[in-house]
Every structure is written in structure tokens, then in C-alpha cells.
Design a protein that fits this description.
Blueprint: E1 12-15, E2 18-21, H1 22-49, H2 56-79, H3 82-85, H4 104-123, H5 131-156, E3 170-171, E4 186-187, H6 190-208, H7 216-235, E5 242-243, E6 246-247, H8 248-267
Antiparallel strand pairs: 1-2, 3-4, 5-6
Helix pairs in contact: 1-2, 1-5, 2-4, 5-6, 5-7, 6-7, 7-8
């Protein structure tokens, strides 16, 4: 067998009466990076436009982050109901977020909704730019948060892909292998594929985003992420509902790509407010 990427032997540690899950730590670290980078980018825009915007992202995050987590969980439960409402499922498992299961589309949808409400509330007491400026500022940080969050899947030994026998394959312990794959030891490290793509796309947005019209950075984020997600999702072997030969998340990726590219193209015709 080739050398391979090992699966961590620990996914949690006990500190007194508390159990700290590495999945949760990855999510928290990603959120912290997203807030830090988003605040830095929005503050730079504020300096160039005569607005004091330092700390605004942190204030918006108070509502946006919980909303995003709730939205991500709702999307996951809706698209993977068998684990919670099936014959061997448990509805109480819905609340066990530390075991994994946050759908990015639900997280973005409800997170953006929460951010918009918070943005409108702040706008009653201070001068703020358009909400699209805010979305452009936070988009690269969200991608980095997704990249870091995917390492939580690594610690949980979940959401890996088809069998793979090469040096970058992911070694999965027997107890985590799906039914029918008991004799296969190594699989596609889909968590790593998505993490690398997300980090690369974040770098592209930071490097070239100032050349695009306001709002375009966020639109390229959702379209660019979805492009990779379509193929990565196709590699995965975890249980999922199919529709006409594609997993539900692949259809969602196609939809988001179309929406993101259409909005980007339309947006490029508008006036630019660079960030």
C-alpha cells in the first residue's frame, strides 16, 4: 500500500467535566479568521471613503454567525433526513452539531439574511456603505473559514470520497468505512480538496477583486466555490439523495453557479466601488 494521509486518532479531548470536539474548534477558528479578515478589509474600504468601519463586521457577526449555524444545520437535516427521522435515526441527534453536519448553502442563506438585518439596524445609528460592500469584504474570509472547517471533517473521519490508492489518499479506520467498503483502506481526501480550493479561491478574490464592480467578489465566491463543490460532491460516498443521477448538492451547485455567474455578468455593467 502507498504512503497515505492518516486519519487523526483523536477527535475530542476531555478537560475536566467538559469535552472539547476538534470539529467545533475548527469551526470556531474559521469564524474567527473570517471576522478578522472581513473587519480588516471593510476597515480599509472605510479609510478610503472617509467612513469609520472598524469593528462593524464583529457587530454584524453577533447575529450573522448564529443564524448561519442554524441555517447550515437546517439545510443538512432537510437534505439528509434519514439520520434523524429514518428507521435507525434519532431526532435528538439534530442538536449534536459537534458530530458534523452543516450545509454550506443553508449557512450562507440564513447567515446573509442575519447579516442584512444586523446591517440595517447598525445603519440607523451610523453611516454605512452599501450592503454589497460588506459582502465583498467578508467573502474571502468565509472561504478561509470553510477551508479550516473542512479539517473538522478530517478529525471526524467523515465525508471522504471514493477509494483511492496513491500517496495523497486518506486512510480511514475500519469502523468509519461505509458498508461495502470494509476491505478498502484508503479514499479520496475530499476535505483536503475543498480546503485547498477554498484557500486558492480566497487568494484570487483578494488579488483580483478590486478590478470588479461592487458585489462581484461575493458572486464569484458563490459561483467559484460551487464549481469545485460539484465535482468534489461527485466523489463522495456518504449517503445522499440522488435526482437523475446527481446528488442533491450537485444540483444545488449547478443552480448557484448559474445564479452567481449571471449576477456577476450583470453587475460588471454597473458602476464600480472598489474595495
Amino acid at each position: 500500500m502507498h504512503a497515505s494521509i492518516p486519519t487523526p486518532t483523536l477527535s475530542q479531548i476531555a478537560i475536566g467535566p467538559l469535552t472539547v470536539h476538534f470539529y467545533a474548534l475548527c469551526i470556531i477558528a474559521g469564524i474567527a479568521i473570517a471576522i478578522w479578515l472581513g473587519d480588516k478589509r471593510l476597515s480599509l474600504y472605510g479609510e478610503s471613503s472617509g467612513l469609520h468601519l472598524k469593528g462593524v463586521v464583529s457587530e454584524v457577526a453577533v447575529i450573522a454567525v448564529p443564524a448561519g449555524i442554524i441555517g447550515g444545520r437546517i439545510y443538512h437535516v432537510i437534505t439528509s433526513p434519514d439520520a434523524y427521522f429514518g428507521s435507525n435515526g434519532s431526532a435528538l441527534a439534530i442538536f449534536k452539531i459537534w458530530k458534523g453536519g452543516l450545509g454550506i448553502w443553508g449557512a450562507i442563506a440564513l447567515g446573509v439574511a442575519g447579516a442584512y438585518l444586523s446591517w440595517r439596524r447598525l445603519a440607523t445609528n451610523m453611516e454605512l456603505p452599501s450592503f454589497r460592500i460588506f459582502l465583498d469584504a467578508i467573502a474571502p474570509g468565509i472561504l478561509l473559514a470553510q477551508a479550516i472547517g473542512r479539517f473538522g471533517n478530517w478529525f471526524n473521519a467523515e465525508l471522504f470520497g471514493r477509494p483511492l490508492n496513491t500517496w495523497w489518499a486518506l486512510e480511514i479506520p475500519y469502523k468509519y468505512r461505509p458498508r461495502g467498503y470494509g476491505l478498502i483502506e484508503t479514499f479520496h481526501p475530499t476535505f483536503l480538496y475543498e480546503a485547498l480550493w477554498s484557500a486558492l479561491l480566497a487568494a484570487v478574490l483578494i488579488k483580483f477583486g478590486s478590478r470588479w464592480a461592487t458585489g462581484s467578489i461575493f458572486y464569484i465566491y458563490i459561483a467559484g466555490y460551487s464549481f469545485a463543490r460539484f465535482f468534489i460532491e461527485g466523489l463522495r460516498i456518504d449517503p445522499a439523495h440522488d435526482l437523475f443521477g446527481l446528488r442533491i448538492n450537485q444540483w444545488m451547485s449547478i443552480f448557484i453557479i448559474i445564479v452567481g455567474v449571471s449576477l456577476f455578468m450583470r453587475n460588471q455593467r454597473g458602476q464600480r466601488e472598489r474595495i
